[in-house]
């Protein structure tokens, strides 16, 4: 009698599991297909008007208007000698060769000030971004996903020039000593807080105190001192036409 009950329970669990997998896959594929249609429309438009600015340089611009194609990959991806979180995948530990030394210097300098910064997510391939975006849309809806996760091709992480930093508490928000240190000091090493507070109308992204982007020391200093974004900096230097132009 007990065995029959156990068997029924086992079969029920298996059926529920299979049902869950089928639903999960079909919803996921449906979302990605929808995105595929949108992206195709957008990239057709891009190929006519928005050519990537400063490709392969420290001032390369990737934002919601300027996207990279599926094949783009930085040439010299390297894992920097810094501490990473356990969640960081092997791919995400890589960054573009040009930022390795400045990043290591930044993390070491923080350490001297008693601040522990951990790498969380550096380079992300088009393929990984597609997966991340798709699952975010599925769990939180498109509106919330669009606020925090870029569509594949439109993430700066595909350039290898940026990295998300966190702290040991995995609570990297304004007011924590780690986030405040990073905001005040990263420009000295050629990095900027890429998505500052109150600049979403320019960057297209909500405030992200953890996302730093390498632009080189001179550029970073000027952006920091003038309290502007990369978009505004490029516009001021007549490299970029500005939004909606
Ligand atoms: Zn980021």
From TrEMBL:
CDD domains: LD-carboxypeptidase. Keywords: Membrane, Transmembrane, Transmembrane helix. GO terms for molecular function: peptidase activity. GO terms for biological process: proteolysis. This is M15 family metallopeptidase. The chain crosses the membrane at residues 7-30. InterPro entries: DD-CPase-like, VanY-like_core_dom, VanY/YodJ_core_dom, Zn_M74/Hedgehog-like. SUPFAM superfamilies: Hedgehog/DD-peptidase. Residues 96-217 form the D-alanyl-D-alanine carboxypeptidase-like core domain.
